[in-house]
């Protein structure tokens, strides 16, 4: 059965072809949702939306731009009348060691992953509160829980740990208004986020740490996002769900 029939979902950073956001958008659409794909490049966002079907929207949006985010969300609320689901998926990473993190590295990684999650959430929260209904799904990472060791540097671990704290605090504050907020902590998923910087040696050592013996797929993460965005998880809020093939059994 369709778990999101008639619902409207916004997914940030979902234009990346092999990415987690695109796979999530596709699964949500398969389950009856109308999806807006927000990403930096307008043409790529529109193309990704068109891949899903004519009713879906692709829009340019930089999640670090407070005003820009608010404008896009306001336009969507006007067009659709409602937003039921926000997936804060836009993210970047850099494989740096602690002493190599320059101010601009810190700013870039913290801004997209953490500030962007805050801004996009702030843009939809008044609307969700007013309707007494909403679900927010944030993309954290196993890097936040185990202190890196996958691909991203310490600034990425810190940003994604920040996302976990933000998730739990928002879940607490928004629960009385029936807005649920949860985080997904993916382990290593083969996407383009590594930007060609992943060496065969890195991949071997990552694989050696995965009990299930394989990297995750974007669909592995999308399934978890569907659970958290649908009524299957009606009593789940403030949780962090591991999708990591057993990389962090604790
Ligand atoms: P990806 O690089 O394939 O896609 C990320 C998308 O975010 C891109 O389309 C990019 O254009 C967009 N983006 C970047 N900066 C943006 C900005 N300022 N505003 C709007 N969009 C922006 O990455 P992915 O692997 O699909 O990762 C998706 C999310 O999952 C990220 O938050 C990432 O940190 C997280 N994650 C990924 C993995 C993994 O192994 N791939 C593991 C843990 C967590």
From TrEMBL:
Pfam family, one: adh_short_C2
Transmembrane segments: none
GO function term, MF aspect, one: oxidoreductase activity
Keywords: Oxidoreductase
PROSITE patterns given in the database record: ADH_SHORT
InterPro entries given in the database record: NAD(P)-bd_dom_sf, Sc_DH/Rdtase_CS, SDR_fam
EC number of this enzyme: 1.1.1.-
Keyword rRNA processing included in the entry's annotation: no
Broad EC category: oxidoreductase
Family that this chain belongs to: Belongs to the short-chain dehydrogenases/reductases (SDR) family.
UniProt protein name: SDR family NAD(P)-dependent oxidoreductase
Source species of the chain: Paracoccus simplex
